[in-house]
Amino acid sequence: MAGHVFISHAHQDRASAEQLLNALESRGIKCWSAPRDVAPGGSYAESILRGIEDSSCFVLVFTQHSNLSPHVLREVERALALGINIIPVRFDDSGVSKSLDYLLATVHWLSVDSEPRSRAFNQAVEKIASCIAPKDPPLTPALSPAPPIGWNSPVVPSGTGAPGSGKQFALWICLAVLALAVAALAFLLLRQPSGSTVFAPKAEPPVAATTPPSAAPRSSSVAPASARESVRPVEPESPTAEFPSKSAAPPAAQVKGVIRDPDGYSNVREVASLQARVIATARDGETVVVLGKERDWIKVSLANGTIGYIHESRIRVNR
After folding, report:
1. Residue of 315, 314, 302 lying closest to 83 (CA atoms)
2. What is the pLDDT of residue 136?
3. Which pLDDT value is given to residue 132?
4. How far apart are CA 129 and CA 140, in angstroms?
5. Has residue 84 been placed in a domain?
6. pLDDT given at position 314
7. Residue 198 included in any domain
8. What is the DSSP letter of 247?
9. What pTM, to 2 d.p., does this model score?
10. Angle at the Cα of 296 (from 293 to 299), degrees rounded to 5?
């Protein structure tokens, strides 16, 4: 019965749970409730755990009895650890215990305790049904039936696509080539040092006609010192002398946190929401890098590089 609604209740509230179960199933929504759906001869606890794991929604029948039931508390903890959508329905005005208040602090509650009670009950059932109603499947183009044999339809060569598809493909190719060219140009510009100076070639002075070396006197084979100094190449100044390098600022210290979860692990979600997809788990006592905070969720980076969100109640941040 995968994808059903799990109804959690104390054994004293069995009548209220059955009333809610019948109302949901009359609307075509599958439900799971103990002891009705526990297999005969099987493990009661194992059946409840499997019912929670296979559910798509967890509905809590909240009364003064379920408020103090340790079994209901464990079922809520399991559903919260698995990331299942939890909908508490208040059937009386009992105060919430600290344990349940801690687990359901960020969850929206429904109530059937107002008058008239039947109207409030039906409104709560409709809201639960709207939360778990199946989404419309994506529209797919209808396939046209194959033409009968002998139908005089034009033969479309294989490999031809829809009109305009070839032009769109060529446009994407041009854009990709342009992006590569811009990236290459930026790489070349960034690769050149900012302080480098390009020196133009020095103009050589005109050389006067001289006697060939073979005919010149032996004493004139060595140029005067003043001539050697005049033709000595001018070495360019070092760019670093004109632009002294600045020492890089030391990197900022990382804020770290330690996972503190009584279940032994904590779920890492893709975004800061209890209904978000679980992308990883962090063990109790594991140290993570704190990247920021969004509402009551801490953005962290795991040791393997995974980045996600953990609820602030499951992590202790080292200030």
Report:
1. 314
2. 46
3. 77
4. 26
5. yes
6. 92
7. no
8. P
9. 0.42
10. 35
Buried b (16+ CB within 10 A) or exposed e, 288-299: bebeeeeeebbb
Q: Give the residue numbers spanning the domain of 289.
A: 255-318
Q: With contact defined as beta carbons under 8 Å apart, do 266 and 281 qualify?
A: yes
> What does the block give as tokens for 56?
């798509």
In a domain, 123, yes or no: yes
Q: Is residue 79 part of a domain?
A: yes
Residue 82 belongs to a domain with what CATH number? Answer: 3.40.50.10140
Structure tokens at 312: 């602030």
C-alpha 148/C-alpha 165 separation (Å) is: 28
Q: Specify the pLDDT at position 143.
A: 52
Is residue 22 within 8 A of residue 75, CB to CB? The reply is: no
Report pLDDT digits (tens) over 194-228: 554 444 454 555 545 444 444 444 544 444 544 44
d(CA 51, CA 33): 8
Cβ(287)–Cβ(264) below 8 Å: no
Q: Which of 87, 103, 132 is the last residue of a domain?
A: 132
Q: Which amino acid is at 72?
A: V
CB < 8 Å & 24+ apart, contacts of 119-122: 121/19, 121/23, 122/23
CATH number of residue 301's parent domain:
2.30.30.40
Residues of the chain with pLDDT under 70: 1-2, 133-165, 192-252
Write the single-letter amino acid at 65. H
Q: At what angle do helices 14-25 and 117-132 cross, to 10 degrees?
A: 60
Q: What is the 3-state secondary structure (H, E, C) of 124-148?
A: HHHHHHHHHCCCCCCCCCCCCCCCC
Q: How many domains does the chain have?
A: 2
Q: Which residue pairs from 201-205 have beta carbons closer than 8 angstroms and sit at least 24 positions apart in sequence? A: 202/233, 202/234, 205/230
Q: Which of 85, 116, 132 is a domain's end point? A: 132
Determine the 3-state secondary structure of 35 from DSSP.
coil
